[in-house]
Amino acid sequence: MESFDGQESTVVALATPAGEGGLAVVRLSGPDAFQVAARVFEGDGFGSNPEARRAVYGILHWPESAPTSPNKAGCAIDQALVLPFKGPHSYTGEDVVEFFCHGGRMVSQAAISACRMAGAVPAVAGEFTRRAFLNGKLSLGQAEAVADLIHAESEHSARAAVRQLLGGLDDQLREIEKPLLDLLAHVEGSLEFVDEEEIVVPRSEILRVLDGGIERLDRLVEMAPAGRLLRDGIHVVLAGAPNVGKSSLFNAMLEDDRAIVDDEAGTTRDVISGRLHRAGSVFVLHDTAGLRDDPGRVEELGIERTWRQVAEADVILSLQVAGEKAPTVAGAGAAPVVSVFTKADLVPDATGVPGSVLLSTTSGAGLDDLWRAIDAVVAGFQLEEAVSLGVVLNERHLHKLSSCRDDLQRLRHEVDLHQPGDEVVGSLLSSILGGLGEVSGRVFTEHLLENIFQRFCVGK
């Protein structure tokens, strides 16, 4: 696999999805972008020093060095618009040229091949956004938001990604970092006067700043589950004894006959999943094998998978037939449980219990109540707060923020109990701020960038 080789080269890639379409965009970026473009495009005086941000119509053609017919018609690839951007006023911060040509695999691949013959090299996955980060156009959190926006499947996830792209996470990090940076400056300033009158930063001031940092980090870390739910969807698991109506409810919630429904116990022997877009979010529903004490060997494997799915659920629907007892799944996982009493149409004067939902998939009665109960659970996941703040935390963010939070707590403990000198406090503060810098990308390694940008497609 090709790898990123720095910013000295001029790279080219298709910036729109491959395949048939009305339009394809081929992007060049790098120090020789204008020169490469001038070798493959003719139109309205376009040359190696074009006017920035002025679209020009013309002919995209093979370069003179290409083994094609010397006449202009034989060399033509497509009619196209070209739009140049001069660095640093471009997406990548470099000179950029974008060709807008007709969609289709042949045209776009020919355009890329022509640019390569003219001196460009193929871009690797995420290279344009990586260059934007390295040139200071985006923070690392904003770069990750680009990938989240591309992969967004719901209105909420797209809104949150856009807000993070606009600097939402960076704003939160600055609120955490600024008091710590001010304290570090105060501490380091005191060390410069060791030969004169002693200046010591008051312990109460250090504790106040550390407590504030811990509190802000706690609030940020609490939103980590919301980031996962926005990216991956809200996983809702339907669980209960055989023949309580799990598959019927699964089909009714999806409004599609995805699961087989039959009176025979144990019909569902594996986990069946379906995705549903609702109220701005993605819900991933899981129909599971019925839970009972004496299953057959194959059915037992399905039940094992049920319990694993329950353990990973975000919301558990614990089903039982109205008026009957059934195995409970409450407490089997960390997720909130909604009790659902099914087949209410078959039980005269059926009643549930406080906080439960009584429904019939045959008549549809109670389905709205069920969704209201699920919405009440989801309201506690802080999705709206994450969307409004633009904080879509991933595992990397969570690991580093949690580590910094623990380090702040240990530093606070040392200051409170052992009163270490300002030199020790300053050293530990610098280390913690370095950790926070890894979240925004102020501090980074090549290994970190490789792990992040491998999520991206070629052309972004």
Mind explaining what this structure looks like?
By secondary structure, this protein is of the alpha/beta class. It folds into 3 domains: 11-137, Gyrase A, domain 2 (2-Layer Sandwich), CATH 3.30.1360.120; 146-223 and 391-441, Up-down Bundle (Four Helix Bundle (Hemerythrin (Met), subunit A)); 231-381, Rossmann fold. Helix content is 44%, strand content 16%. It has 16 helices and 13 strands. It has helices at 33-40, 72-75, 105-117, 127-134, 140-151, 155-165, 168-191, 203-221, 224-232, 246-254, 297-311, 367-378, 383-389, 395-417, 422-440, 446-453; strands spanning 11-14, 24-29, 41-42, 56-61, 76-85, 96-101, 121-122, 234-240, 272-278, 281-287, 315-321, 337-342, 357-358. The strands form 2 sheets. Strands 3-4-5-6-2-1-7 form a 7-stranded mixed sheet. A hairpin with a 2-residue loop joins strand 9 (272-278) and strand 10 (281-287). Helix 5 (140-151) runs antiparallel to helix 6 and helix 7 (168-191) packs antiparallel against helix 8 (203-221). The longest helix has 24 residues, at 168-191. It starts with 10 loop residues before the first strand and ends in a 7-residue tail after the last helix. The model has no long low-confidence stretch (mean pLDDT 86).
Number of domains: 3
- Pattern of helices and strands: EEHEEHEEHEHHHHHHEHEEHEEEHHHHH
- What is the straight-line distance between the termini? 17 Å
CATH fold-level assignment of the largest domain: Rossmann fold
CATH class of the largest domain: Alpha Beta
CATH architecture designation of the largest domain? 3-Layer(aba) Sandwich
Beta-sheet strand percentage? 15-25%
- Secondary-structure-based class equals alpha/beta
Strand order in the sheet with the most strands: 3-4-5-6-2-1-7
The parts where pLDDT drops under 50 for at least 5 residues are none
- Number of helical segments? 16
Most strands sheet: 7 strands, mixed
The average pLDDT score comes to: 86
Q: Tell how many strands the DSSP assignment holds.
A: 13
What is the overall silhouette? Answer: flat
Helix percentage range: 40-55%
Radius of gyration: 29 Å
| CATH superfamily label of the largest domain | P-loop containing nucleotide triphosphate hydrolases
